[in-house]
Design brief:
Layout (H helix, E strand, L loop, with lengths): L3 E7 L2 E9 L4 E5 L10 H7 L4 E5 L16 H13 L5 E5 L1 H11 L7 E5 L7 H8 L5 H11 L4 E2 L1 H13 L12 H10 L1 E3 L5 E3 L3 H7 L22 E8 L6 H9 L4 E9 L2 H4 L1 H19 L1
Parallel strand pairs: 3-4, 3-5, 5-6, 6-10, 10-11
Antiparallel strand pairs: 1-2, 2-4, 7-9, 8-9
Helix pairs in contact: 1-11, 2-3, 6-7
Length: 299
């Protein structure tokens, strides 16, 4: 993994991340649920020739010591990260849940963003529909599905942990979420998904409790994961829509979000959901184009 480990103290804990280096405009990379900052390693390797690049593990993920205590903390932390980095109007890039995180932080004014790049991480329903859909995360069946699919919260000794990581790497090409990623990158991401426990074992992060808490915000909140959040976004925004991603079946609604705002662009990409790990060079080129456009507009 390229870069230097960094830490930022936030309310109730410390976020861990990687400073990938580079010079120029600041670019903050925000991962999705179940992953961590290492998922951006290959994208960052292309970006550092054009900008300063940093990524952090969200609450409850990777090596970050803090878990969420409220549904909004994980995206509100981005404001404290930007302040700690001393950045002015950075470009925020978010994948999946990270896509909403950068949108929410900007919509709430937590970060004065120079631009957003949202990668298959949209919110397209109204508040009522979203609230009804989120209610499923309160059910035991939802937690069990997460345990079975991703082993969230799984506790293991070192040998079982390492065996599982190797299994994930071997199955890269047959895993619909990460097919096309390098097995070595999968190993690095999965290894950072485990954190040591006091008893000498390891736990797979995030836990299902972390997911359940962050997935059920207050429907009366000013900033909420519903389509009205985009009414609060005034900075330039690029939406990356993979052809086989989560939101491909709703591309007409995505295009409506783009048309509704000033200086918004939609970029279609031939990929599945996990664009940062499977199409790093193409994604980096999209981000660089956004960075250059923002820089040109401020000259």
């Amino acid at each position: 993994m390229l870069g230097t480990e960094v830490k930022v103290r936030v309310s109730g804990g410390v976020l861990s991340g990687v400073d990938f280096g580079g010079e120029g405009p600041g670019v903050l990379l925000v991962h999705g649920s179940g992953h961590n900052c290492v998922a951006w390693s290959e994208v960052a390797s292309y970006l550092v020739a054009h900008c300063r690049v940093v990524a952090f593990d969200l609450r409850g993920h990777g090596h970050t010591e803090a878990d969420s205590r409220t549904p909004e903390q994980y995206w509100r932390d981005l404001g404290e990260v930007v302040v700690a980095l001393g950045w002015d109007r950075p470009v925020l890039v978010g994948h999946s849940t990270g896509g909403y995180a950068v949108t929410a932080a900007t919509a709430a004014g937590v970060v004065d963003s120079g631009a957003l790049c949202v990668i298959d991480g949209l919110v397209l329903d109204d508040r009522e529909t979203t609230a009804l859909d989120n209610a499923q995360w309160r059910e035991p069946e939802a937690a069990q599905r997460l345990r079975e699919m991703f082993r969230y919260g799984w506790r293991a000794d070192e040998r079982r942990m390492l065996d599982y990581i190797e299994q994930c790497a071997r199955e890269t090409d047959t895993d619909w979420l990460i097919a096309g990623a390098r097995p070595e990158l999968v190993r690095e991401v999965m290894r950072r998904c485990f954190i040591a426990r006091p008893d000498g074992g390891y736990v797979r992060r995030p836990t299902v409790e972390e997911i359940a808490l962050t997935a059920v915000p207050d429907p009366e909140a000013a900033v909420y994961p519903s389509v009205d959040v985009y009414e609060r976004i005034e900075c330039p925004m690029t939406i990356v829509l993979p052809t086989d991603g989560f939101y491909a079946p709703r591309s007409a609604e995505v295009r409506a979000v783009v048309r509704a705002g000033h200086d918004r662009r939609l970029v279609d990409i031939d990929a599945g959901h996990n664009v940062p790990m499977t199409r790093p060079a193409e994604l980096a080129a999209i981000i660089v184009d956004l960075v250059h456009r923002v820089a040109a507009a401020t000259e």
